[in-house]
Amino acid sequence: MDLFDGVPATQLMEAGQGISYDDFIVLPGHIDFHHQEVDLKTQVTRRISLGLPFVSSPMDTVTEHEMAIKLALLGGLGVVHYNNSISEQAEEIRKVKRYENGFITDPIVLGPNATLADVDAIKSRYGFSGIPITEDGAARGKLIGIVTNRDTEFEPDRSKLIREVMTSELVTGQAGISLSEANDLLRRSKKGKLPLLDSEGCLVSLISRRDLLKNRDYPDSVKNERKQLRVGAAVSTRDEDRERVTALVEAGVDMIVIDAAQGDSIYELKMLEWIKGEHAEVDIMGGNVVTRAQCARLIAAGADGLRIGMGPGSICTTQGTMAVGRAQATAVYNSACLARDHGVPILADGGISQIGHIAKALGLGASAVMMGWMFAGTEESPGDYFYDNGIRLKSYRGMASLEAMAAGGDKRYMTRADDRKVKVAQGVSGSVLDKGPLDLYVPYLVQGLRQSLQDMGVRGITHLHTALIDESLRFERRSHAAQIEGGVHGLHSYKDAGQA
Question: Active site includes 412?
Answer without folding.
Answer: yes
